[in-house]
Amino acid sequence: MSMARFISLFAVGGVVVPLVFQVIWLGVNRNPAIELKLGLGLQKIMLVLWPSSLMMLPAGSDERLLPATLLISIAVNVVLYVAIGAAIWYGFRKHYVALVLLAVVMAVIWWRILSL
After folding, report:
1. pTM
2. What is the spatial distance between Cα 22 and Cα 9, in angstroms, rounded to a whole number?
3. Which of 17, 30, 45, 116 is buried deepest, with most CB atoms within 10 A?
4. 43-73 pLDDT, tens per residue?
5. How many H-runs (helices) and E-runs (strands) does the chain carry?
6. How many Cα neighbours within 13 Å face the side chain of 65?
7. Domain tally for the chain?
């Protein structure tokens, strides 16, 4: 598989993951009982898979900002996913040390995000 195709799969994932979470949150917000059961766990999973969703917090009070903030957040997520995909591809093709370094960096980032 070529690098461009491999990275394009990660780019698609960077778009699909936020859209799936938006659909899930639409369903969760309509039912308060579900929100109480799934809220915190779903937020932590979302922060791991969609770290740029933190950018949407300021738009929560102003509905007019939500579409623009969502698009920017998805674009940032695509950039993050492409960078991770490129590092994984490079690690598999050239140096396995890049995979170890990526795993350590991602573990530190996830630990920091989940300890908020």
Report:
1. 0.81
2. 20
3. 17
4. 888 888 998 888 887 766 777 888 888 999 9
5. 4, 0
6. 10
7. 1
